[in-house]
Design a protein that fits this description.
With 803 residues, the chain is α+β, with helices and mostly antiparallel strands. The protein has 3 domains: 2-42 and 275-444 and 672-800, no CATH class; 54-262, no CATH class; 456-633, no CATH class. Helices cover 47% and strands 17% of the residues. The strands form 4 sheets. Strands 1, 2, 3, 4, 7, 8, 9, 10, 11, 12, 13 and 14 form a 12-stranded mixed beta sheet that branches. Strands 17, 18, 19, 20, 21, 22, 23 and 24 form an 8-stranded mixed beta sheet that branches. The chain is elongated.
Length: 803
């Protein structure tokens, strides 16, 4: 019986190859997208699930939103350690970056010597000794506990061992620096990609601390713990010890397994993912599968007349309705199974491009579980898509069919119209989404941020004391004379990232501002190099030696500052220019700041962050690491300048690795998830429109064949080609247009909700919805017209000669 079903299916495919190819291609595209998104979703959801007791581990975040900032991943370690006495807390892990260690203890030397060659340790964290209780780390060689409990001992990753020593097992090897040396105590396996942890070198927390460490703090709770209760206790404890505006701050606990989707802040180890991107992918894939299934239903119903006599003959020969349903479901399953095989081939071909777009390590593994899941999905889609056509076709009356009555009933017509309208609505919605996302990302790219993103090169993570020199700065001098370089300056702040320091001033009118007041420490030529827009006054210049910070015998520092317009206006100065030339005191009483200029407001960080009043000062950077910004000439060869700058930095600072990039690339990186969503929406929108066109093409071909005699008669009576085309297409245009109009309110609400995530956002213009609807209508007309013109150009005699 099954063999006969397949034999009949092959015969049906041969008789209507176009119908078969349209269904096969549609299902293949939909299934390939579904498999790819399933791989992506599984990968995203696997983040940090491999760690011990991952479901009970939380990271402590500090809430700076009362200051107008955001939630960040850092918190004070003493608060977490005090919670160890809490009955619902089992343990606490403390991690902090080695670069920030100088705030709490003696700084850790990262530049080391190996056999006479200089190298820099990569991704260095200091950690508490209980690290293995929180992180699934495979120790390949040596003793990790030794590295995390003894000074001068290090644990390095497998890749770092190969980079530094040329082999995997480097236990016992030493790294020298000016004041001493490090010994490799352990080598651990490289961390997998699907974790938010990033480190290649681990060291112990110093025994002697100047103040409690501030870094990444993780708590492991008991199984019956109440995270809200623990947070309340921690916040109460913190506020009791705090003074002033620090009492406004809060704390939150974020589950370890959710950190990947909540790691977009500036102090993360790794750029996190986006649950919205994943949800959009899943939603768009469901839409593609829905469109492919709708095409299958429509094409089968539209072609039912061709199978009517076959059904009538089978029924006359004794075939039961269940047998006929089985026959048509078998045909449906056959098409979907072939489509699944093609989809797997497409996925294998698409994975490299998908990994590049998503920056993930997806792979297609033909494990038993994966094959079973694919088979279940294929069978489910085949059954759902083929069930209604099978029920519909098998319900034909043998008497009516064989007597020549091929009326199909109103139900089939309504199903076809509803599903075609659904396709039209989905196409309009996706085109609108693509346009809105594109325009929003264009707004972000063109957003006035108060500094120049283009033609700027930035060299990051350089030792502050080496680059912040007013006189005889060989490094800055050599960078400035490079061909294509116009100017250079220092900066302690990554403008595309977040603020790193503040400056509180006492104004001439007696005002003492509260709240967050970011300050950027630069060198000379800050306005020119960073692209600030000067409103009044001048730039920092070596012609004015007093611009550079100087400290007198009493410990009072004097330096020059630039003020943003909003900062001056907050202090009560309607005309900020009147401050130029005046000297302000710092609220600490240890500094004097001479105002030399007023600049337009500067936005630090991504478009999601709030714009804050900013000051710019000269050479007061306290951070251990800072950056150099290079302004290059328009049209200059940036790649060559970056290579030459890298060589100069390596030679002058005796380091082996240099973190160098373009500021415009860093700005795009700050919005990587939004750009990803933009690309995905465009790709899926294009696929959805293609599948919709395929469905309309199939329906139009059946409609044209069914009405070819009517077309011939109209042509004999003098109808023009264009009138015949419009006759055949008007039903499709009306249905698709109505579907688009129904979809508009829903997509307007959804896109409005997404735009609310941005401080600066576009308005949803009516023309976007009009363009999307007209585009779908035009595509529909062109699709139908391609077949209608052929029918209109056919000679009536060829159609009517047998009448």
């Amino acid at each position: 019986m099954i063999f006969n079903y397949f034999k009949t299916a092959l015969r049906s495919i041969k008789q209507d190859t176009q119908h078969f190819m349209l269904n096969l291609l549609g299902f293949s595209i939909g299934l390939a997208a579904a498999i790819m998104v399933a791989l992506f979703a599984a990968y995203e959801l696997s983040y940090d699930s491999q760690h011990p007791n991952a479901d009970r581990v939380y990271r402590v975040h500090t809430d700076y939103r009362p200051w107008g900032l955001q939630m960040i991943a850092a918190s004070d370690s003493d608060l977490a350690l005090e919670m160890l006495s809490h009955t619902q807390v089992e343990g606490a892990l403390i991690l902090t970056e080695a670069q920030s260690l100088s705030y709490f203890a003696e700084p850790m030397i990262l530049d080391v010597t190996i056999k006479g060659e200089t190298a820099r340790l990569s991704n260095v964290l200091v950690a508490s000794s209980n690290l293995l209780d929180f992180i699934n780390l495979e120790v390949l060689f040596g003793d990790l506990n030794k590295a995390l409990t003894r000074p001068g001992q290090l644990a390095i990753s497998q890749a770092e061992s190969i980079r530094l020593f040329g082999n995997e097992n480097s236990v016992g090897q030493t790294l020298s620096y000016e004041q001493g040396r490090y010994e490799i105590a352990a080598v651990f396996a490289d961390l997998p990609d699907n974790t938010h942890f990033v480190f290649d070198t681990l060291a112990a927390i110093p025994k002697v601390l100047n103040s409690p460490i501030r870094g990444y703090v993780y708590l492991r709770l008991t199984e019956d713990a109440d995270p809200d209760l623990i947070v309340a206790d921690m916040v109460e404890n913190m506020r009791e010890k705090s003074t002033g505006r620090h009492k406004q701050l809060g704390l939150t606990l974020n589950k370890l397994q959710d950190l990947h989707f909540n790691s977009s802040g500036p102090f993360e180890m790794k750029q996190g993912g986006s649950s919205l991107v994943m949800q959009v992918c899943i939603a768009l894939t469901v839409l593609l599968l829905l469109i492919a299934s709708v095409n299958f239903i429509n094409l089968n119903i539209a072609g039912a007349a061709k199978r009517a006599k076959e059904v009538g003959v089978r029924k006359a020969l004794g075939a039961s309705k269940p047998q006929l349903i089985s026959q048509f479901l078998t045909e449906s399953m056959f098409v979907v199974m072939i489509a699944a095989l093609i989809a797997l081939v497409l996925v294998e071909l698409m994975i490299p491009s998908a990994n590049q777009l998503l920056e993930r390590s997806l792979s297609l593994s033909f494990s038993p579980l994966f094959l079973v899941l694919v088979a279940v999905v294929v069978i489910l889609i085949g059954l759902l898509s083929g069930l209604y056509p099978a029920l519909f076709i098998s319900s034909f009356s043998a008497k009516r069919v064989l007597s020549g009555d091929l009326q199909r009933g109103k139900t089939a017509i309504w199903v076809r119209k509803l599903t075609l309208g659904l396709q039209g609505g989905l196409s309009v919605a996706l085109i609108v989404a693509a346009i809105v996302v594109y325009k929003q990302m264009a707004l972000i790219g063109d957003l006035p941020v108060g500094y120049s993103k283009t033609d700027r090169v930035i060299i990051k993570n350089l030792p502050t004391e080496a680059i912040y020199q007013a006189d005889d700065n060989r490094l800055m001098s050599q960078l400035k004379v490079l061909d294509g370089v116009e100017q250079v300056t220092q900066s302690n702040t990554l403008l595309t990232h977040d603020m790193t320091s503040e400056l509180f001033l006492v104004w001439p009118n007696g005002e003492r501002l509260r709240g967050t007041q970011p300050s950027i420490s630069t060198g000379f030529h800050a306005v020119e190099t960073l692209g600030f827009e000067l409103v009044a006054g001048r730039d920092f210049s070596p012609q004015y030696a007093s611009d550079w910070m100087a400290t007198d015998e009493q410990g009072i520092s004097s330096f020059s500052v630039l003020l943003s317009e909003s900062l001056a206006k907050q202090a009560g100065y309607a005309n900020p220019a009147e401050l130029v030339g005046q000297t302000l005191a710092t609220q600490s009483g240890r500094g004097k700041a001479k105002v030399v200029g007023i600049i337009k407001d500067v936005k630090i960080g991504s478009a999601r962050q709030q714009q804050l009043p900013v000051s710019v000062n000269v050479a007061s950077a306290q951070d251990p690491l800072a950056s150099i910004v290079i302004k290059v000439s328009p049209g200059a060869n940036k790649a060559r300048i970056m290579e030459e700058a890298q060589r100069i930095v390596i030679r002058e600072l005796a380091i082996t690795e240099v973190d160098i990039s373009l500021i415009e690339d860093d700005y795009k990186r700050a919005h990587i998830n939004e750009h990803r969503m933009q690309q995905l929406v465009v790709i899926f929108s294009g696929l959805a429109v293609i599948l919709t066109c395929m469905g309309i093409l199939g329906l139009a071909s059946f409609a044209t064949i069914r009405r070819q005699k009517e077309v011939a008669v109209r042509k004999v009576l003098g109808a023009s080609r264009i009138s015949i085309v419009n006759l055949l297409s008007k039903e499709f245009l009306a249905i698709v247009g109505i579907g688009g109009l129904i979809a508009i309110p829903l997509v307007y609400w959804l896109m409005g909700d997404w735009l609310n995530n941005f401080n600066e956002r576009i308005d949803q213009a009516i023309w976007i919805y009009g363009v999307a609807t007209l585009s779908v209508v035009a595509i529909t007309w062109l699709t139908v017209a391609s077949l209608a013109f052929k029918a209109a150009n056919t000679r009536p005699s060829l159609i009517l000669r047998y009448e």
